[in-house]
């Protein structure tokens, strides 16, 4: 079963469970520890027998691509707990909910900040890497992101090729 839940509507126990998975997966990463992150607007969760089999969070925001504002769905924390890995659950979840980004939420693109090892995975799901300078906010001011940026455009639309992206807020 797949559920899309407003992050603010998650029960305290569900929020704690998702945060536990996030901390397990990314809590040891120095870059993650050193930054302030945006609170998600939505959590997309696939359940197996009432257990979280895979999930991701979404931040909806106006961002700037080469100075032009567009509505983006920022994807973060795509996580499959270890007991459920290797079953294609993340692929299934991302494919099954792709339309939500564009049809329901009216986004112009999806954006994710991606580790090198995951670029091939997302590429198989129609995400594509862009060579863009990406800025994001932190309490001390604008910061430059120096890793992979991937975009997803609606089916049938041309790929975007920005040279500069500003997240207009905290990273996700």
TrEMBL record:
A GO term for molecular function: acyltransferase activity, transferring groups other than amino-acyl groups
Coiled coil: none
InterPro entries: Acyl_CoA_acyltransferase, GNAT_dom
Domain of life of the native organism: Bacteria
Entry-linked SUPFAM superfamilies: Acyl-CoA N-acyltransferases (Nat)
Domain N-acetyltransferase: 5-155
Record protein name field: GNAT family N-acetyltransferase
Native source organism of the sequence: Pontibacter cellulosilyticus
